[in-house]
Amino acid sequence: MSAYNFAFLDEHTKRMIRRAILKAVAVPGYQVPFGSREMPLSYGWGTGGVQVTASVIGPDDVLKVIDQGADDTTNAVSIRKFFERTTGVPTTTRTDQATLIQSRHRIPETPLRAGQILVLQVPIPEPLRWLEPREAETRKMHALEEYGVMHVRLYEDITRHGRVAQTYEYPVLVNGRYMMRPSPIPKFDNPKLDMSPALLLFGAGREKRIYAVPPHTRVKSLDFEDHPFEVEHWDRPCALCGVRGVFLDEIIVDDKGGRMFACSDTDHCARRRPGGAPGPDGA
Amino acid sequence: MNEEAERPLLSVRGLAKRYGAQVACLDVGFDLWPGEVLGVVGESGSGKTTLLDCLSGRVAADGGRVEYATASGEVVDIRRLDEPRRRRLLRTEWGVVHQNPRDGLRMGVTAGANVGERLMALGARHYGGIRGEALAWLAQVEIAGDRVDDLPETFSGGMQQRLQIARNLVTRPRLVLMDEPTGGLDVSVQARLLDLLRGLVADLGLSAIVVTHDLAVTRLLAHRLLVMRSGEVVESGLTDQVLDDPQHPYSQLLVSSVLHP
Asked: If pLDDT is split at 50, 70 and 90, which confidence band does B1 have?
């Protein structure tokens, strides 16, 4: 551990990233460029999220790392170990006990509270990317609030599928101003962004952008008046803990077409089952 | 033409554009009155398209004034207008019909979305309403309603051009800039498109600037004509006057070059 600075990054880099974060918090939903560093993991594995976490983590923090809702998958385990080694802070799998949560693809089912920080890993921060290829033009569109083309996409979905088929990275308007891509969380989690008491930070390492949703900020998922925004529903409870109204993963259990639906959030699921929560790394 | 109009819709003075040493537009000036269709003719490379691009602000002109009287009665210089307002004007009060429909259409989305895009950009948020409006405009440009959910790629060239026109007219612009609207279409399709354009211009009271190298198009569509050569306007006047009694040697050459079957 002594071979590294606290949380791996040097203090100058942390200061630069903290400045970007402050700006992002001041202008909710605005993508702030920052000098993304090479990290000891490959792009697409959370380099942006790791840098944000490394810049805001302190010795008193309790860290939780989630990958696709689970605490025991490869990405979650290795990022948690990385921060255990480089900071020595305690880690947990319990959402309610963590002060800092880095996540990929999910917002925990347990409601976040004031004082917590959720860091989300973002592959592509630009919501207009597949509609407008020119970066100079998308920046101009953000500056001038020219977001009509986003609704063209929703219109197409309804025309072709009868409903908005976008199920993740569902575009949102933050604080009535900036269009934001809420990282690849399912649209099921979109309502949790709205008026969240916790600070939400988004880091994109390869694309070198940081953006934020400060606590108690309006976040509106785009929709049409006659096709209002809806989240996914399941007609069955979790096969493991029996809870309803949470995001379920479909798991194939044999080669005869057998499948079950279980909680995506492993911490939430485990604490509802007899025997209590498993320890870190699923032990 | 609207007799009550006291000032031109568009007033251009001394417009100039160079590409390095190459002169594209030199001291171009004209007035366009409400409800008027102005034809711009000349051979390839005479600066017609550059003129159009300078008017819409897509290309920054080197000098001159482009004064436009907005719907609210304000007179603005397009060249000095700040970018948000210029882009907004272009989306609401102006329309641009490109020579190649692929430049003016979103090829990856359906005809309905193409027509509805401007409405959504202006804040329309009712799917049924947008779709209804799109259907009405497709009918106006003689595209069958059952094609509303088809991609423009499945349309013929003439249909794509008509779709592009519908996409522009949906916000009821006051001024439409057209660059060779009939280019690349065969003659019978051209004739139908011209007929349609003439009807729309008359019904909606549109003002339009039509750039073309085809004198027959201007005869049918334009009230007045500018003849351009090497970036300069060499002759202007009423369409019939210029075509039947050309004064400038170049206009005479142009008119005498037309083949008559």
From this structure: very low
Residues B133-175: tens digit of each pLDDT: 999 999 988 899 999 999 999 999 889 999 999 999 999 999 9
What is the residue extent of each domain of chain A?
11-125+173-218, 233-278
pLDDT in tens, A48-106: 999 999 999 999 999 999 999 999 999 999 999 999 999 999 999 999 999 999 999 99
Which H or E element spans position A48? helix A47-56
Residues of B in contact with A151 (CB under 8 A): 120, 125
Q: Is B106 on the interface with A (CB under 8 A)?
A: yes
Q: What is the mean pLDDT of residues A139-151?
A: 93
Whether A263 is catalytic? yes
A35 is annotated as an active-site residue? no
Pick among B88, B105, B109 to test the A interface (most A CBs inside 10 A): B109
Mean pLDDT on A257-276: 88
pTM of the model: 0.86
Q: Which CATH class is domain A11-125+173-218?
A: alpha beta
Q: Which of A148, A203, A269, A282 is catalytic?
A: A269
Closest Cα in chain A, distance from residue B234 (Å): 38
Question: Has A29 been annotated as catalytic?
Answer: yes
Of A281, A209, A205, the C-alpha closest to A42 is: A205
Q: How confident is the model at residue B43 (pLDDT cuts 50, 70, 90)?
A: confident
- Taking the C-alpha atoms of residue B88 and residue B82, their distance in angstroms, rounded to an integer, is 10
Highest mean pLDDT among A51-60, B47-56, B222-231: A51-60
Active-site residue identified among A49, A203, A241, A257:
A241
The active-site residue, picked from A46, A48, A69, A263, is: A263
| Interface check B86 vs A, CB under 8 A | no
